[in-house]
Fold this protein.
Amino acid sequence: MSDNPIPVSYTENTDLSAWPVNLNIVSELHQNPLVPFIDGVDVVKLIPGSQYEPLIRLRLTRLVQSGEWVLGVSWAHLLGDAAALLNFLSTISRIYQHLKPFEPMPVFERRLWLEEEIDQSFLPLMKHLTYAGPLQEMFQHFGSWKDTYEQLSIRFSGEQLAKLRELAGGNEVTIQDSLSAYIILTLNTHCYLNDDKRR
């Protein structure tokens, strides 16, 4: 980890009339339709310990025809898991909306882990880290989600999102937080609490 700046790129897209709902899930790793919207972190450069490859990259794309904005984020997993990324993006969103960020605030301090500090007793709980398996096996595992999950695409208008935020508490919550709460409530009401076998 170095003190280099976080790269932020900007581009305009004149081809898309609106954000297509079928781009929300990447089902094939080798055919990623999101590539034009993301500046990927080159993980291969991080493995030998490059001091120059950033751990996070941001790409802002303006869809000219619809006036929509797309924020593409590439995040190296060693910064944290999906929950840490969500916390980071939520903090940016709240600051942008002039809201107080939730505690705890993301902290990016350089921390050198010493081998003698490692607690070996947790290794059996993290088999995905202690034994990752061959690359082909890993790709098959990641691709198996199609056998157990169904994609559901829902599109909300700006007016609907504003109304949802108003119902969830107005200026006290972000649009993203109100949308996340709505999705969780909907799943709990219609799937998880009804013993839906698809869950």
Notes: Residues 158-193 form one domain. The mean pLDDT is 79. The first strand starts at residue 8 and ends at 13.
